[in-house]
Amino acid sequence: MTSVGEEVQTFRGQVSAGDLGTTLIHEHVFVGHPELDLNLPHPEWHEDRAIETAVEGLERLWDLGVRTVVDLTVLGLGRDVARVRRVAERVRMHLVASTGYYTADVLPAYFQTHGPGLLVGGPDPLLELFVRDIEEGIAGTGIRAGMLKVVTDRQGITPDVRRVMTAAAQAHLRTGVPITTHTHAPSQNGRDQLAFFREHGVAPERLVIGHCGDTEDLDHLRELMDAGATIGMDRFGMEHVLPDDARVATVLALLREGYADRMVLSHDAAFFSRVTPPSWRARHAPHWHMENISRRIVPRLVSGGATEDDLHQLLVLNPARLLTRGPVAHDGEDD
């Protein structure tokens, strides 16, 4: 294995991990769907207006002390880094782009014919995409991805999800970029993700098992952290899934047990998502936005006993450790 430096890729190029500051490690700027956006435009989407909303929102976040936001919008969620660059160029915030593929079950038909042993054949386009996004840049923009994202949901590790996860593991071993996940916490399939990645040579310390804040099962969360993984307490504001009071209580309980170095906080929020558009969020999830942790959650954590050192660990040190590129495999080590 070969070590790499402690730099993190952002929309404006490399920055030192020590300069990331307070970081929201699981967010989205815009979530869309290119085919639907073209053929069934959402009535609430107006690109210029959305750009202004995102710029204003990230500037407010900066004023609240947040310095870095990781945009985990990958393929399958309407990733358009050229659009997000219009935001990044106007804000003080560091934005980090991501690569990966968001599917809970099957990939598009293209992937059924392209790849080793398939009809058209050739190398796996998923692996080529992930590595190119990390090493050269996304979609010709030169903006390089700083994180890999994969998904398992209720369906578990389907054959196509396994293919995505395999490509992500191989890309991680080649580049050192960390992996973060979407899980279905009620079925505890973060355990399956952890086992899969360990079998494929990924160190648990390079994994964020996402959406763990959706469960109050402390035994399950301890199991993941005791194995070395970091858990994402990353859906604050999604009170239609679990109230924030319960999420805070879980974090406080784990802090008291000494797990501050194995958790990260975020919201999984977006300035626009056609899945849950702004009008729906305003009515049904009014606290589901990127200011929630700064304005509501941090004060609740402090009143429950969290220390300044705890908060610094959760919001600064842990994200910086994870986003720093780790050791990379020599050619052939990941085969």
Automatic annotation (TrEMBL):
<dbReference type="Pfam" id="PF02126">
    <property type="entry name" value="PTE"/>
</dbReference>
<feature type="modified residue" description="N6-carboxylysine">
    <location>
        <position position="149"/>
    </location>
</feature>
<keyword id="KW-0378">Hydrolase</keyword>
<dbReference type="InterPro" id="IPR032466">
    <property type="entry name" value="Metal_Hydrolase"/>
</dbReference>
<protein>
    <submittedName>
        <fullName>Phosphotriesterase</fullName>
    </submittedName>
</protein>
<dbReference type="InterPro" id="IPR017947">
    <property type="entry name" value="AryldialkylPase_Zn-BS"/>
</dbReference>
<keyword id="KW-0479">Metal-binding</keyword>
<dbReference type="InterPro" id="IPR001559">
    <property type="entry name" value="Phosphotriesterase"/>
</dbReference>
<comment type="similarity">
    <text>Belongs to the metallo-dependent hydrolases superfamily. Phosphotriesterase family.</text>
</comment>
